[in-house]
Amino acid sequence: MCASFVTRRAVVKGGLAAAAAQFPRPFVVTARAADTVKIGLDNPLTGTYAAPGKNELIGCQLALDEINAKGGVLGRMAELISEDSTSGDAGTAVQKARKLIDGDHVDFLLGNVNSALSLAMAQVSNEKGILHIVPGGHTDAVTGASCHWNVFRVCNMTQMEANAVAASLVKEYGKNFYYITPDYAFGHTLEDGMVRAIKALGGTRVGGDLTPLGSTDFSAVLIKAQAANPDVIVFLTQGEDMINALKQAVQFGLQDRIHLAGAQQELEPLEGLPPEARIGTWVMEWYWNQPGVPHVDAFVDAIKKRTGRVPTARNWFGYVSGWTCALAAAKANSLKAVDMAKALQDFHLPPEIALGPNPAFYRAGQNQLMATLFVGNAQAKGEADDDLFKVTKTVAGADAAGTVEDSGCKMTWPA
Amino acid sequence: MTQLLLFNVFNGLIVGAFYALMALGLSLILNLSGIINFAHGGFLALGAYLAYTLIPWIGFWGALIVAPLLTAALGLVVERVLIRPLYGGDPLYSLLLTFGLAYIFEDLSRLVWGAQGLPFAVPRWLTTPLSSQFFFLTGYRLFMIAIVAVAVGGLFAILGYTRLGMRIRAGTRDLDTVATLGVNTRLLRSLNFGLGIYIAGLAGVLAAGLLGLSPTIGSSLIMPSFVAIIVGGLGSLLGTLLGGLLIGVASGLTAVFLPAAQEAIIYVMMGLVLLARPRGLLGEEGRLH
Amino acid sequence: MTPAARRIVDLAVWAALATMPFWMAAIGGYTELATRIVVMGLAAMALNFLLGFTGVLSFGHAAYFGLGAYGAAMGIKYLGLGTLPALALSVVVATLAAALIGALIVRRRGVYFAMVTIAFGQVFYFIAFRWNSVTGGDDGLTGWHRLPIDFGRATLDIYGNDRAFYYFALAIFALSVGAMALLLNAPFGRTLLAIRENERRARFLGLPVERHIWLSFVVSCFFVSVAGGLFALLNNFTDPRALRFDLSGNLVIMAVLGGMRAFWGPLIGAAVFVALQDYVSSHTENWMSVIGLVFVLVVRFFPRGVLGALRGGAAA
């Protein structure tokens, strides 16, 4: 008994020691190249948002490789430090943000896919005065009621998305709309935006339901939706909720009687749906298949080399975020956050980064990127296996957005 | 309105049947071995992923048969190596160990198959609805009910008519006496665990046809299973079945009046049952005291 | 452990805590990490009051942690309270809830008790999630931050100065831990141990078992809510995840990892867990596997935890 006891302990201790030896020792970490410009990405790499988070990371990595190939930021090499914020634990996201700022001394903070975590991190970045780019965190407050001078956002606000798609829906499908809305701030504001946009065009909301985030079964809600006999059922759910809801709606055969549509759609959920469920009218924030638009093919090839698939909007968000850091520093000729933030007011992205038919710029006084929105229909397969979306029209972000006053953003600058 | 309610009751029964299937596997393991298997969702996810990988080779029906078997095999290995030493101990330890296993399973799924949702293809003829009036009775949901019925029937048949089943039932009441009677309780517990995991794998294959397949599919389904067991009663498989159906229907009815609460209602039910009748609807007093 | 040895351990722990911000940076940490360790350590020790010293497993302590966090956050955001009053408010709210719920569930034991604590935790999570006009819902409660404390003659800038906040948190930690130690050494604490060791015998001895378990539950939740309040102050943010059962599970593993039977065990467990998670997740995306492995290894080989193993005998 004793002998085996000792042996087992020794084995376990030895195993743990061997495992520990795999990790570089902590003090080696601080010996990072002191001469690089550091960009900290605090994004989910595990949990529900792992897929978009990873795609943003890949886009950002591509950006940094290109930046370094062109000479870096203000003559110094750029270094990307990536941390996993988790998909929902604000404590971890905030802790990692502080680690990046206080421990790693990053010059830029990037993140988060999760709206709530974006807001929490924005508070930290504002407190510490660091330039913060939000690639794909959608809650309006980030460049709205809770806007800060140092926080910029790449992805769209909900009203922009709603305005872009509403006209197509009312014109082609009818006036009665039923909403399936995920029960959190983003869902609520997206629904409000849609209702307003559609009302302005003569449509009405005949009913709607709030669904808990992470719902697995939408059948009850779909039954209600069908009973209300609308022209269109609007799915505002995202990510896995989108997959579950659409999959089940198609199994019910709802698309034969009622048109299915929504606002924000992404390639990730479309890829996760079986081919017969890739239907509906949506708006995407960026799409890879843009014939005739220069530079897009190069980007598509570059991402394909890294992931084996076409880029998604998330890749593009990360790409733009990374490049924004370099361009801001170049224009301001400084790494001081205030200087760079001022340089980004009404700053236009060069075409090889905007990658769209319209100019892309950060609107002054709000720090919100105005780019292009792509309205279209999901399809099982287009010209290529990855062509899951048929773009029917593009809308300039600037045209779809309300005014800065509408957004509720009152920006104050440090003295 | 009545039609809406009726539809939702029927639909709730269908969904509840699925919850019941998951919960039955969990309950089986809990009753005989006293192990709270927090990793049950992880095994479910594994079953789904294995099916996804096998479908191009052996088709959907082949995967439906093989994937749960493979999952059960893994379950047997896990039981032998990790779970067996925990028998007879504080349930705290099995909770913690399986909690950790759940983390590992989720991470490994993401490592092997990626974080991206995967399109799980179900045979086309299954995904069409049977009538436009009762549109929610899709071929797939009826298929699911059929499989659940077969699985539950099979389970109760095994328990009622085979020697293994008889020993499991006896062991659930008094494992010590069963051991004294010369039965190899180690083997019994292993087989029981394997059976429970087989059901989890089967539930996983079914789930993948209904939901998006991603590494987090297991963790979203584990809590309703626990609730089904608590509501139905620890120690009673029939109770678990009933519990699953009840929470399915409750969730469906809540969706009619207050959809935002359709998830919370099951916890309220659980709380109420625990306070008013802690052994559950069909449970036995003194189980896992 | 002899009283002298115990003194030495206590001194060592306090010395390490008092100087943590300084040696933390040298090993690749940072001050906020140290503060987080202290906060989670307090939460784990509070849980252990119930788990290790009374022998009752709660898997829903995150509910009271979260209530404490929301109480402090809402106090500062809506009532404009200072730091100390906000903490007081958070504790009052959470402890009241604990007293009420504890009275309801105190008759249950074992898995039932653990499950019903999960149920209540999820209900609070749902309330925090849905009542978004007040709690901010899924977006969490932002737009506020901890304020410097005005002591009349001097101000302690716990907002701008991370180290100042660390020592503030440490002071609260010291008071809480001291109070818990006092309770455990008093006859009350002895009774709890008796209940842990053999509940039936304690009952036969005429001890009011349910009342003691209820009191232990309330005390435990009281201190966990203090930790929750500090957590909200640390992040200048709170959200419904602070109420979920994952956090509860993590608290339990911290207590077990460090050693449930030792007073300082959960603090050691929290330090190892928090630091490990922070460090590992910076270096690999697969940190969940590593953490999961820790759970498995602890249960299989170190069920008595680090301190239990050090005392001699790693087997349960």
Please give a handful of descriptors for the protein shown.
heterotrimer, A: 415 residues, alpha/beta, Rossmann fold, 7-stranded mixed beta sheet, 16 helices, 18% strand, globular, disordered N terminus, C: 316 residues, ABC transporter involved in vitamin B12 uptake, BtuC, two-stranded antiparallel ribbon
Describe, in plain words, how this protein is organized in 3D.
The complex is a heterotrimer of chains A (415), B (289) and C (316). The longest helix of chain A is centred in the N-terminal third of the chain and has 21 residues, at 2-22. In chain A, helix 10 links the parallel strand 9 and strand 10 (281-284). Chain A has 415 residues and is an alpha/beta fold. Chain A contains 16 helices and 14 strands. Mean pLDDT of chain A is 89; it is low at 1-15 and 17-31. In chain A, the strands form three sheets. In chain A, strands 7-6-8-9-10-13-14 form a seven-stranded mixed sheet, with helices on both faces. Chain B has one domain: ABC transporter involved in vitamin B12 uptake, BtuC. Chain C has a single domain, classed as ABC transporter involved in vitamin B12 uptake, BtuC (Orthogonal Bundle), CATH 1.10.3470. Helix content of chain C is 74%, strand content 1%. In chain C, a hairpin with a 4-residue loop joins strand 1 and strand 2. In chain C, helix 2 packs across helix 12 (265-283), helix 3 (62-79) packs antiparallel against helix 4 (83-105) and helix 7 (162-185) packs antiparallel against helix 10. The radius of gyration of chain C is 19 Å and the shape is globular. Chains A and B meet through helix 3, strand 7, helix 8, helix 9 and helix 10 of A and helix 1, helix 3 and helix 9 of B.
How would the blueprint of this fold be written?
The complex is a heterotrimer of chains A (415), B (289) and C (316).
Chain A: H1 2-22, H2 26-29, E1 37-43, H3 50-69, E2 78-84, H4 90-103, E3 108-110, H5 115-128, E4 131-134, E5 151-153, H6 158-173, E6 176-182, H7 185-200, E7 204-211, H8 219-227, E8 232-235, H9 239-251, E9 259-264, H10 267-272, E10 281-284, H11 296-307, H12 313-332, H13 337-343, H14 351-354, E11 361-363, E12 368-370, E13 372-378, E14 389-396, H15 397-400, H16 404-407
Helix pairs in contact in A: 3-12, 4-5, 6-7, 12-13
Chain B: H1 2-33, H2 40-83, H3 91-113, H4 139-161, H5 163-173, H6 175-180, H7 185-210, H8 217-232, H9 237-257, H10 264-276
Helix pairs in contact in B: 1-4, 1-7, 1-8, 1-9, 2-3, 2-7, 2-8, 4-5, 4-7, 5-7, 8-9, 8-10
Chain C: H1 3-26, H2 31-51, H3 62-79, H4 83-105, H5 110-130, H6 132-135, E1 149-150, E2 155-156, H7 162-185, H8 187-197, H9 199-204, H10 209-235, H11 245-258, H12 265-283, H13 287-301, H14 305-310
Antiparallel strand pairs in C: 1-2
